[in-house]
């Protein structure tokens, strides 16, 4: 059970990192002077991200410990970025 949880955590974290890299890559390529096109591209990027998250969870739904680890792993980048932001801001 613990091995499955760790495997899911590694899998979910890797998917989360790939999603983060994809979104930052997309945001760097967007020309924000054209607001309508930028909004469509950002929404499309987040739709792809959510689809990838759904597929990652769907791929492991048959194994509960791996599913739990994957769910935790998918939230890892959010937590890492939140902690980095708080540390950079000095806890203000």
SSE order, as H and E? HHHH
Share in β-strands = under 5%
Q: Strand tally, please?
A: 0
H/I helix tally: 4
- Radius of gyration (CA) equals 16 Å
Largest sheet: none
Termini, distance in Å? 40 Å
> How does the overall form come out from the CA principal axes?
flat
Mean pLDDT comes to 92
Supply the key terms.
92 residues, mainly alpha, 4 helices, 0% strand, flat
Would you kindly provide a brief summary of this structure?
By secondary structure, this protein is mostly helical.
Record the SSE blueprint.
Layout: H1 2-29, H2 35-59, H3 64-74, H4 76-89
Helix pairs in contact: 1-2, 1-3
Written account of the structure:
This protein has 92 residues and is mainly alpha-helical. It is 85% helix and 0% strand. The chain is built from four helices and no strands. It has helices spanning 2-29, 35-59, 64-74, 76-89.
């Amino acid at each position: 059970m613990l091995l499955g949880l760790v495997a899911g955590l590694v899998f979910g974290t890797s998917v989360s990192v790939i999603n983060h890299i994809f979104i930052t890559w997309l945001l760097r390529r967007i020309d924000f002077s054209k607001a309508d096109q930028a909004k469509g591209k950002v929404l499309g990027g987040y739709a792809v991200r959510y689809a990838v998250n759904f597929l990652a969870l769907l791929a492991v739904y048959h194994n509960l410990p791996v599913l739990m680890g994957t769910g935790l792993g998918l939230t890892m980048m959010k937590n890492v970025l939140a902690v980095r932001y708080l540390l950079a801001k000095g806890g203000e």
